[in-house]
Amino acid sequence: MRELHSFGWYAKQLKGHLPKKAFRPDPGKLLGGAAYLLITTAAMLGIVFLSLPLPVNLLLSLIIGMSFAAMGFLGHEILHGTVVRSPFWRNTLGGLFFWPLCTGPRLWRKWHNMSHHVHTQHEEKDPDTWLTDTAVRKNAMLRLIYRLPISVRAFFEFATQTVMFTLHSLRMFKTYASEFKSNAAPALWLQLLLPWITWISLLLIAGVTNWIFMYLIPLLIANGVVMAYISTNHRLNPQVEINDPLANSLTVTVPKWVDVIHFHFSHHTEHHLFPAVNSTYYPLVKQKIKEYWPHLYHEMPMSKALIALWKTPRPYFNGKNLIDPSRGEVYGTLGNGLTESGESASTRAQ
Ligand SMILES: [Zn+2]
Ligand SMILES: [Zn+2]
């Protein structure tokens, strides 16, 4: 693998090219958040009070689900401190916009800001990186799962994306809860339980059928949308010892209007270089990265990245490869044989 550099090494060289306001909080983004809250509330009230036909209810579920996902992207940005500066408002608003996905702001900052961003794609320290071949071999259940043909596994991996963010969030709570000081425990638990209490109360108030359209279907849609980004952000890249965003992250491309409604979440390499920069400036960061290091930068259309994800196996093998344990076939990762058109020739493991 090529010589790696930390994200600070890249950021230092590009910092001077960004305007000062890129580093200031941008509370204007809350207008977008308010619009999502209004749309969601109106759609929920419509489902409860208007006795609409099934296709209209499904359309409203889709709108709510897309709004939940977008609110999650806004919550992510708020909790990086790029929207409001005050810790109280950062946590309150971050928690509010993560409410549909039931992830508390304290847990998120520990899991995402302090662990995933600091140790991206580190085999042991990144809570979001995928398993290694060694971990699969040590676990009987995983060995069994990975004996299934790759297409069957890909199907289940894609199907479970509709619940994966919620499940991973609960797993992260279990992982990190013990690392908080005892005086932080009540807030941590409240931030976990209050969103769930809200959504379960809604079930009791609105009834099962309405609740399915108001929350359950939207939650599955929101999980699917956020996981489409999260699963392509790093899983086609190698695992690395040095947190080099140009090696360990992928920027996906989506239509411009999607970037606007998703707060440029597609620009993930740029985000890992400058997590504290207002995301509106990520296209400028991208332009500069492409000027400085065009040969190191990875970018793929979202559709191609998802197809590549489907076609390549998941466990990592020697950090820079992916292996299909059932057939012993080894595939490359980005920068190590996997091309940006999503093709990777497979070889037999030695
Ligand atoms: Zn990431
Ligand atoms: Zn982040």
UniProtKB/TrEMBL annotation:
Residues 56-300 form the Fatty acid desaturase domain. The chain crosses the membrane at residues 30-52, 58-76, 144-167, 188-206, 212-230. GO terms for cellular component: membrane. InterPro entries: FA_desaturase_dom, Fatty_acid_desaturase. GO terms for biological process: lipid biosynthetic process. Keywords: Membrane, Transmembrane, Transmembrane helix. One of its GO terms (molecular function) is oxidoreductase activity, acting on paired donors, with oxidation of a pair of donors resulting in the reduction of molecular oxygen to two molecules of water. PANTHER family: DELTA(5) FATTY ACID DESATURASE C-RELATED (PTHR19353:SF19), FATTY ACID DESATURASE 2 (PTHR19353). This is Acyl-CoA desaturase. It comes from Alkalicoccus luteus.
